[in-house]
Inverse folding.
Protein backbone atom coordinates (compact mmCIF):
# COMPACT_ATOMS: atom_id res chain seq x y z
CA UNK A 1 0.00 0.00 0.00
CA UNK A 2 1.39 3.36 -0.98
CA UNK A 3 1.81 5.83 1.87
CA UNK A 4 -0.15 9.08 1.57
CA UNK A 5 1.64 12.24 0.45
CA UNK A 6 0.89 15.70 1.81
CA UNK A 7 1.78 18.65 -0.43
CA UNK A 8 4.44 20.88 1.14
CA UNK A 9 5.16 24.11 -0.74
CA UNK A 10 3.84 22.53 -3.90
CA UNK A 11 5.78 19.26 -3.51
CA UNK A 12 4.27 15.95 -2.34
CA UNK A 13 5.65 14.85 1.04
CA UNK A 14 4.63 11.70 2.86
CA UNK A 15 5.57 9.39 5.71
CA UNK A 16 7.93 7.42 3.49
CA UNK A 17 9.85 10.61 2.67
CA UNK A 18 10.17 11.46 6.36
CA UNK A 19 11.42 7.93 7.14
CA UNK A 20 13.84 8.15 4.22
CA UNK A 21 15.28 11.46 5.44
CA UNK A 22 15.54 10.24 9.04
CA UNK A 23 17.28 7.00 8.05
CA UNK A 24 19.75 8.85 5.82
CA UNK A 25 20.49 11.37 8.58
CA UNK A 26 21.17 8.56 11.06
CA UNK A 27 23.47 6.81 8.61
CA UNK A 28 25.44 10.00 7.91
CA UNK A 29 25.68 10.71 11.66
CA UNK A 30 26.91 7.18 12.32
CA UNK A 31 29.59 7.54 9.64
CA UNK A 32 30.71 10.94 10.97
CA UNK A 33 30.96 9.62 14.53
CA UNK A 34 32.91 6.63 13.27
CA UNK A 35 35.42 8.83 11.42
CA UNK A 36 35.77 11.53 14.07
CA UNK A 37 39.27 11.57 15.51
CA UNK A 38 40.69 9.31 12.78
CA UNK A 39 42.92 9.98 9.78
CA UNK A 40 39.81 9.88 7.57
CA UNK A 41 38.92 13.48 8.49
CA UNK A 42 41.95 15.23 6.91
CA UNK A 43 41.73 12.89 3.90
CA UNK A 44 38.09 13.84 3.31
CA UNK A 45 39.02 17.51 3.71
CA UNK A 46 41.69 17.06 1.03
CA UNK A 47 39.12 15.50 -1.31
CA UNK A 48 36.77 18.44 -0.73
CA UNK A 49 39.62 20.85 -1.56
CA UNK A 50 40.33 18.98 -4.82
CA UNK A 51 36.65 19.06 -5.75
CA UNK A 52 36.52 22.79 -5.03
CA UNK A 53 39.56 23.45 -7.20
CA UNK A 54 37.99 21.38 -9.98
CA UNK A 55 34.84 23.50 -9.79
CA UNK A 56 36.86 26.71 -10.01
CA UNK A 57 38.86 25.33 -12.94
CA UNK A 58 35.63 24.57 -14.82
CA UNK A 59 34.20 28.00 -14.07
CA UNK A 60 37.27 29.82 -15.40
CA UNK A 61 37.72 27.34 -18.29
CA UNK A 62 41.17 26.14 -17.18
CA UNK A 63 41.05 23.01 -19.30
CA UNK A 64 44.48 21.58 -18.49
CA UNK A 65 44.10 22.04 -14.72
CA UNK A 66 40.55 20.66 -14.84
CA UNK A 67 41.73 17.54 -16.68
CA UNK A 68 44.52 16.92 -14.15
CA UNK A 69 42.15 17.38 -11.21
CA UNK A 70 39.58 15.04 -12.76
CA UNK A 71 42.15 12.27 -13.04
CA UNK A 72 43.37 13.01 -9.51
CA UNK A 73 39.84 12.68 -8.11
CA UNK A 74 39.28 9.51 -10.13
CA UNK A 75 42.45 7.96 -8.72
CA UNK A 76 41.47 9.05 -5.22
CA UNK A 77 38.05 7.39 -5.59
CA UNK A 78 39.71 4.12 -6.61
CA UNK A 79 42.06 4.14 -3.61
CA UNK A 80 39.45 5.16 -1.01
CA UNK A 81 38.60 1.56 0.05
CA UNK A 82 42.30 0.95 0.73
CA UNK A 83 42.86 4.20 2.59
CA UNK A 84 39.70 3.81 4.69
CA UNK A 85 40.19 0.09 5.37
CA UNK A 86 40.28 0.41 9.21
CA UNK A 87 37.20 2.65 9.27
CA UNK A 88 35.27 0.40 6.86
CA UNK A 89 36.21 -2.66 8.89
CA UNK A 90 35.04 -0.97 12.09
CA UNK A 91 31.77 0.04 10.43
CA UNK A 92 31.01 -3.47 9.17
CA UNK A 93 31.97 -5.01 12.51
CA UNK A 94 29.67 -2.57 14.26
CA UNK A 95 26.78 -3.45 11.98
CA UNK A 96 27.50 -7.15 12.48
CA UNK A 97 27.44 -6.73 16.26
CA UNK A 98 24.12 -4.93 16.12
CA UNK A 99 25.42 -1.36 16.21
CA UNK A 100 23.12 0.86 18.23
CA UNK A 101 20.85 -2.08 19.01
CA UNK A 102 23.51 -4.32 20.58
CA UNK A 103 22.37 -6.30 23.59
CA UNK A 104 23.16 -5.15 27.11
CA UNK A 105 25.90 -6.87 29.03
CA UNK A 106 24.65 -9.53 31.43
CA UNK A 107 25.27 -9.25 35.18
CA UNK A 108 27.56 -12.31 35.33
CA UNK A 109 29.62 -11.02 32.41
CA UNK A 110 29.95 -7.63 34.08
CA UNK A 111 31.15 -9.21 37.34
CA UNK A 112 33.70 -11.36 35.52
CA UNK A 113 34.94 -8.31 33.62
CA UNK A 114 35.35 -6.30 36.83
CA UNK A 115 37.33 -9.13 38.41
CA UNK A 116 39.60 -9.48 35.35
CA UNK A 117 40.24 -5.73 35.20
CA UNK A 118 41.13 -5.66 38.89
CA UNK A 119 43.77 -8.34 38.23
CA UNK A 120 45.11 -6.43 35.22
CA UNK A 121 45.30 -3.14 37.13
CA UNK A 122 47.15 -4.77 40.02
CA UNK A 123 49.62 -6.53 37.72
CA UNK A 124 50.19 -3.33 35.73
CA UNK A 125 51.07 -1.36 38.86
CA UNK A 126 53.57 -4.03 39.97
CA UNK A 127 55.16 -4.18 36.51
CA UNK A 128 55.29 -0.39 36.33
CA UNK A 129 56.97 -0.15 39.73
CA UNK A 130 59.69 -2.58 38.62
CA UNK A 131 59.91 -0.94 35.16
CA UNK A 132 59.13 -4.14 33.30
CA UNK A 133 57.72 -3.64 29.83
CA UNK A 134 54.38 -5.31 29.07
CA UNK A 135 51.69 -5.40 26.40
CA UNK A 136 48.22 -6.81 27.12
CA UNK A 137 45.33 -6.79 24.63
CA UNK A 138 41.83 -7.12 26.10
CA UNK A 139 39.51 -8.66 23.51
CA UNK A 140 36.30 -6.78 22.81
CA UNK A 141 33.44 -7.75 20.51
CA UNK A 142 35.89 -8.32 17.66
CA UNK A 143 37.75 -11.60 17.88
CA UNK A 144 41.56 -11.63 17.94
CA UNK A 145 42.06 -15.18 16.75
CA UNK A 146 44.51 -14.27 13.97
CA UNK A 147 46.76 -12.61 16.55
CA UNK A 148 46.33 -15.45 19.06
CA UNK A 149 47.64 -17.89 16.46
CA UNK A 150 50.83 -15.85 16.07
CA UNK A 151 51.85 -16.56 19.68
CA UNK A 152 51.88 -19.41 22.19
CA UNK A 153 48.46 -20.71 23.19
CA UNK A 154 47.89 -20.76 26.97
CA UNK A 155 44.15 -20.73 27.79
CA UNK A 156 45.12 -20.13 31.43
CA UNK A 157 43.14 -18.41 34.16
CA UNK A 158 44.07 -14.76 34.46
CA UNK A 159 46.07 -13.93 37.58
CA UNK A 160 48.66 -11.42 38.72
CA UNK A 161 51.25 -14.15 39.12
CA UNK A 162 50.71 -15.41 35.57
CA UNK A 163 51.12 -11.95 34.06
CA UNK A 164 54.26 -11.29 36.09
CA UNK A 165 55.77 -14.59 34.96
CA UNK A 166 54.94 -13.88 31.32
CA UNK A 167 56.57 -10.44 31.23
CA UNK A 168 59.61 -11.23 33.37
CA UNK A 169 62.59 -10.09 31.25
CA UNK A 170 64.08 -13.61 30.97
CA UNK A 171 60.75 -15.19 30.04
CA UNK A 172 60.61 -16.47 26.43
CA UNK A 173 57.20 -14.78 26.02
CA UNK A 174 57.98 -11.34 27.43
CA UNK A 175 58.70 -9.68 24.06
CA UNK A 176 55.24 -10.29 22.60
CA UNK A 177 51.72 -9.38 23.67
CA UNK A 178 49.38 -11.29 25.95
CA UNK A 179 45.79 -11.53 24.75
CA UNK A 180 43.05 -11.68 27.39
CA UNK A 181 39.50 -12.85 26.70
CA UNK A 182 37.20 -12.65 29.67
CA UNK A 183 39.01 -14.20 32.63
CA UNK A 184 41.43 -16.22 30.47
CA UNK A 185 44.82 -15.45 29.01
CA UNK A 186 44.38 -16.97 25.56
CA UNK A 187 47.95 -16.59 24.36
CA UNK A 188 51.24 -14.82 25.01
CA UNK A 189 54.16 -13.81 22.85
CA UNK A 190 51.75 -12.65 20.14
CA UNK A 191 52.65 -10.31 17.30
CA UNK A 192 50.44 -7.23 16.86
CA UNK A 193 50.22 -4.91 13.83
CA UNK A 194 52.28 -1.74 14.13
CA UNK A 195 50.64 1.63 13.64
CA UNK A 196 51.58 3.43 10.44
CA UNK A 197 51.49 6.78 12.22
CA UNK A 198 54.85 8.21 13.26
CA UNK A 199 55.41 8.57 17.02
CA UNK A 200 57.24 11.83 17.54
CA UNK A 201 58.58 11.01 21.01
CA UNK A 202 61.63 8.75 21.04
CA UNK A 203 60.69 6.95 24.27
CA UNK A 204 57.48 5.63 22.69
CA UNK A 205 58.75 2.48 21.07
CA UNK A 206 57.52 -0.69 19.42
CA UNK A 207 55.16 -1.67 22.25
CA UNK A 208 53.28 1.62 21.95
CA UNK A 209 53.14 1.37 18.15
CA UNK A 210 51.78 -2.18 18.43
CA UNK A 211 49.18 -1.12 21.01
CA UNK A 212 47.97 1.76 18.84
CA UNK A 213 48.07 -0.40 15.70
CA UNK A 214 45.81 -3.10 17.17
CA UNK A 215 43.39 -0.50 18.55
CA UNK A 216 43.19 1.08 15.08
CA UNK A 217 42.19 -2.21 13.44
CA UNK A 218 39.96 -3.70 16.16
CA UNK A 219 37.88 -2.62 19.15
CA UNK A 220 40.37 -4.16 21.59
CA UNK A 221 41.58 -2.18 24.60
CA UNK A 222 45.36 -2.48 24.87
CA UNK A 223 47.30 -1.97 28.10
CA UNK A 224 50.95 -1.04 27.57
CA UNK A 225 53.72 -0.45 30.12
CA UNK A 226 56.89 1.36 29.14
CA UNK A 227 60.11 -0.48 29.92
CA UNK A 228 62.05 2.78 29.86
CA UNK A 229 59.92 4.86 32.23
CA UNK A 230 57.43 2.42 33.74
CA UNK A 231 54.53 4.61 32.56
CA UNK A 232 51.17 2.88 32.09
CA UNK A 233 49.11 3.75 29.00
CA UNK A 234 45.90 2.51 27.41
CA UNK A 235 45.32 2.42 23.65
CA UNK A 236 41.82 2.47 22.22
CA UNK A 237 40.46 3.48 18.79
CA UNK A 238 43.92 4.57 17.68
CA UNK A 239 44.51 6.92 20.64
CA UNK A 240 46.78 6.62 23.65
CA UNK A 241 45.92 7.69 27.19
CA UNK A 242 48.65 8.65 29.66
CA UNK A 243 49.44 9.10 33.37
CA UNK A 244 47.55 6.12 34.77
CA UNK A 245 49.92 4.97 37.53
CA UNK A 246 47.22 4.94 40.24
CA UNK A 247 45.68 1.45 40.51
CA UNK A 248 42.15 2.61 41.34
CA UNK A 249 42.11 5.14 38.52
CA UNK A 250 43.60 2.66 36.09
CA UNK A 251 40.93 0.11 36.96
CA UNK A 252 38.09 2.59 36.43
CA UNK A 253 39.49 3.75 33.08
CA UNK A 254 39.94 0.15 31.90
CA UNK A 255 36.33 -0.61 32.89
CA UNK A 256 35.03 2.44 31.02
CA UNK A 257 36.99 1.59 27.86
CA UNK A 258 36.07 -2.11 27.87
CA UNK A 259 32.36 -1.46 28.37
CA UNK A 260 32.37 1.05 25.52
CA UNK A 261 34.15 -1.41 23.20
CA UNK A 262 31.79 -4.28 23.99
CA UNK A 263 28.61 -2.31 23.31
CA UNK A 264 29.16 -0.48 20.04
CA UNK A 265 31.97 0.95 17.96
CA UNK A 266 33.50 4.37 18.39
CA UNK A 267 31.74 6.82 20.67
CA UNK A 268 28.21 5.78 19.90
CA UNK A 269 28.31 3.53 22.95
CA UNK A 270 28.98 6.44 25.26
CA UNK A 271 26.09 8.22 26.86
CA UNK A 272 26.37 11.89 27.69
CA UNK A 273 27.12 11.37 31.38
CA UNK A 274 29.52 8.53 30.69
CA UNK A 275 31.37 10.62 28.11
CA UNK A 276 31.84 13.44 30.61
CA UNK A 277 33.27 11.07 33.21
CA UNK A 278 35.53 9.47 30.64
CA UNK A 279 36.91 12.82 29.49
CA UNK A 280 37.68 13.78 33.09
CA UNK A 281 39.49 10.52 33.78
CA UNK A 282 42.05 10.57 31.02
CA UNK A 283 43.19 12.60 28.06
CA UNK A 284 43.41 11.13 24.59
CA UNK A 285 46.48 11.90 22.56
CA UNK A 286 46.60 11.55 18.79
CA UNK A 287 49.39 9.36 17.57
CA UNK A 288 50.99 12.08 15.47
CA UNK A 289 51.74 14.36 18.45
CA UNK A 290 52.33 13.34 22.05
CA UNK A 291 52.73 16.28 24.39
CA UNK A 292 53.44 14.46 27.65
CA UNK A 293 56.27 12.17 28.63
CA UNK A 294 55.49 8.48 29.12
Amino acid sequence: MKLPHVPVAGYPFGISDAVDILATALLVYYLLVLMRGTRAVPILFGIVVLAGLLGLANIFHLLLLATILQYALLGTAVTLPIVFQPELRRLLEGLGRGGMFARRERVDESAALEEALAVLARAAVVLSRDRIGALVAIEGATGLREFVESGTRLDAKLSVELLLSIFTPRSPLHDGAAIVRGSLVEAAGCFLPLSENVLTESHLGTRHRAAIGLSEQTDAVVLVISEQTGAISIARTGKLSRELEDEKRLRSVLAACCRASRRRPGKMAVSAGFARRLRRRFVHRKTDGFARRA
